Amino acid sequence: MQEITKIALDAMGGDNAPCEVVKAAVKATQNRDDIFIYLVGQEDVVNEELAKYTEDKSRIQVVDAPEVIEMAEPPVMAIRKKKNSSIVVGMNLVKKKEADAFVSAGSSGAILVGGQLIVGRIKGVERPPLAPLLPTERGVSLLIDCGANVDARASHLVQFAKMGSIYMENVLGVEKPKVAIVNIGAEEEKGNALVKETYPLLKACKDINFVGSIEARDIPKGEADVIVCEAFTGNVILKLYEGLASTLIGVIKKGLMSTLISKIGAAMALPALKGTLKAFDASEYGGAPLLGLNGLVVKAHGNSTAKELTNAIYQCVSFKNKDINGKIKEHITEVTPSSEDEA
Amino acid sequence: MQEITKIALDAMGGDNAPCEVVKAAVKATQNRDDIFIYLVGQEDVVNEELAKYTEDKSRIQVVDAPEVIEMAEPPVMAIRKKKNSSIVVGMNLVKKKEADAFVSAGSSGAILVGGQLIVGRIKGVERPPLAPLLPTERGVSLLIDCGANVDARASHLVQFAKMGSIYMENVLGVEKPKVAIVNIGAEEEKGNALVKETYPLLKACKDINFVGSIEARDIPKGEADVIVCEAFTGNVILKLYEGLASTLIGVIKKGLMSTLISKIGAAMALPALKGTLKAFDASEYGGAPLLGLNGLVVKAHGNSTAKELTNAIYQCVSFKNKDINGKIKEHITEVTPSSEDEA
User: Is the Cβ pair A272, B250 closer than 8 Å?
Assistant: First the structure.
């Protein structure tokens, strides 16, 4: 018989909690019988929401977490003080091996801090990267790292490349994923000090398909599957992607609505256009994994609906079934004595 | 009588040279009588192109530069070896004060290197930044620095903020331009080591209107007029802007063409849409100035047409008439003994 993947789901996290989260739990357990969900949150609130569904709920268990971490709270403080919050309780389930993964659309900062402080790093992993998927002309690319720890070292970036490559190959099914480092030109001698130091290390890596530098303009074209960069740069890329896409779509809508003729034309063109823009939407593929932990933590987008959360849940199942963490342990061999404080 | 601005124009630079460059020279001198143009390039080629115009050419002078720097040439070598190239000859006109400005759509690398090696920095300017304009929902913002010298220091960024502010106020006419530093969060304590060091220095600056951090997602909204960052980050922002805009417009076109109904709709909507997208086009505003030099050097986009080049020429006139360099000298007071090799 197939193995069950147990997932702790943050019922209080995100703009649409708890209703979309509860809906995702019901949907995922209905669709697949290899999933068990711990719905972590304020018991009465979650139960009230759950009561709306008549479906079988035998593979859903509510776990009480009376406290809630707000989006604006300083993450380290929140994780240390709110021991009964959904994020801390959910992550402790992963730590105690009662759950394989934790999925949350809540505070990014708290998820990043909790992942490191509660779930903990795989031995040998120097820094766990947050790796969202970016939509491209050809599908999606993994942008690694977009986490909270900036000013990375070259050895971190090499580990990001390996972990990202394993993830894309096994969870997204990309054969020999092309790994590139974000740079300001294609030539090997270009770049800042960090990129210049990292480039030859990546080139020497036997277990990844390193294709060299990628300029930011080629990221949307999908020219690499794993895009390696330090978290400050990754954050700029991720947020500019979101911001520019939303601004451009707004500008285009305004243009389409500016005359009567164009309004009629827009009404005719809209259904086809929506279909294409939908393909350019990373949320279809689930959330951003925080890699290199003793378990899996997935950060879903703050405005996730049941659909995106369900996809994030399925992602956890692939992650477990493909033994991503086993593969990471195998490839992360260079244990560097780390002196930094990661929190 | 009004003063004449003398501009050296690289007749050999860019995808559309020499024809669009020569056209721009004729157009600019026809439209305004306060402009004198040196057309720098291979004499016979330029003269042949110029012969196509019947307009008055008394304020255009061809200056022979038999050599051409190709886009792919290593910049430092090209500038040192090709003394008779249009870039070296044109920049020497600025150095000798025979021209006020040099405009080129040629090799960015050669223009950046030449600007520093030939034209030279204003005393006190530690590093001359390249500052392109980015289109936003509200107009344009100046992104400073996007040059070739990465790994900047905090003192460089402070100078970028001052120079960018002077430029936006005087050349673009933005009153009290809002200056922001690119960061991964809005809070003062966020950021990498460079941003954390720079933030309080900018906050203490009396002569700029510092508004704090800007996240990349807010850049397209036009929330700041001067966007300060180190050149690696600036390069990523600039190139992702170009790449993502072109990809999204491609995806949208594909969507509009996918069904017969949507094709008819698209044909009706297109004229209005084009008008709006045109407003979202930074090339309307001219080229990217390389600031802090003893004169002005403007890098126009490689695919510039006569229209963009004419705008770059007008930009040089404003630059001179508003005495931008005089104002820069006034505000760049902190002369730091610099040990770095800038080339």
Answer: no
